[in-house]
């Protein structure tokens, strides 16, 4: 369900990461190679990127399939950035959220995406939602599971958690509340990337002199791509990648 990608490194045109590679996110929207759940990612897409000297990212999101938006291809050709996060959304049940449900979600310097699904939604997440301040619940961009997961991560970030800790603890809490959920999370502030592999695929490519890519699946057949083990936290900069096992929460 869904595909996403983040990058930090030397400035690149968005299209060099999202469009040009033979199995880029654009192609993954209709022909993913490693997606375990769902087949067509046509219910929205988005990309967020950082401009030099501005810590707050810009976003471009739409409710339809990425292949049907010629403006995106034009934007991706000319916009360059040292960091981005982009996602395509799996075909889902009809809803009113539209563009608001398309990742990346954003607040301050942060961009976020959730690849997966919360089992038993929405009832299973009631206790976690109830623990959030009312203003944060009322500020949700959408009513989908990903928007609530983002609110839980953001609450931890605002409380001072490091990015890796925020996504890891949110995954463990959500997995405890809704066993069997798929919780691949992706978070960046334009300098670091934090991600979890929990129920779906996650890969990374570290290229000296270029930067680090973290993605649901490889966008080409470069043998340097490495798969992240399931139940793991990845934290990365443009030069370093660290993997930490995550333990299944006790009942």
TrEMBL record:
> According to the UniProt entry, what is the EC number of this protein?
3.5.1.118
Q: Does the keyword Hydrolase apply?
A: yes
The record's section on SUPFAM superfamilies has: N-terminal nucleophile aminohydrolases (Ntn hydrolases)
Question: A single Gene Ontology molecular function, please?
Answer: hydrolase activity, acting on carbon-nitrogen (but not peptide) bonds, in linear amides
- Reactions it catalyzes: gamma-L-glutamyl-hercynylcysteine S-oxide + H2O = S-(hercyn-2-yl)-L-cysteine S-oxide + L-glutamate
- Residues forming the Glutamine amidotransferase type-2 domain are 2-251
Annotated pathway: Amino-acid biosynthesis; ergothioneine biosynthesis
Q: Which residues form the signal peptide?
A: none
Name of the top EC class for this enzyme: hydrolase
Q: Any one Gene Ontology biological process term?
A: ergothioneine biosynthetic process
Top-level lineage group: Bacteria
UniProtKB keywords:
Glutamine amidotransferase, Hydrolase
Q: Which InterPro entries match?
A: EgtC (IPR017808), EgtC-like (IPR026869), EgtC_Actinobacteria (IPR032889), Gamma-glu_amide_hydrolase (IPR052373), GATase_2_dom (IPR017932), Ntn_hydrolases_N (IPR029055)
- NCBIfam families, A to Z: ergothioneine biosynthesis protein EgtC (TIGR03442)
Report the function annotation for this chain.
Catalyzes the hydrolysis of the gamma-glutamyl amide bond of hercynyl-gamma-L-glutamyl-L-cysteine sulfoxide to produce hercynylcysteine sulfoxide, a step in the biosynthesis pathway of ergothioneine.
Q: What name goes with this protein? A: Gamma-glutamyl-hercynylcysteine sulfoxide hydrolase
Organism of provenance:
Streptomyces tirandamycinicus
Instruction: Identify the coding gene.
Output: egtC
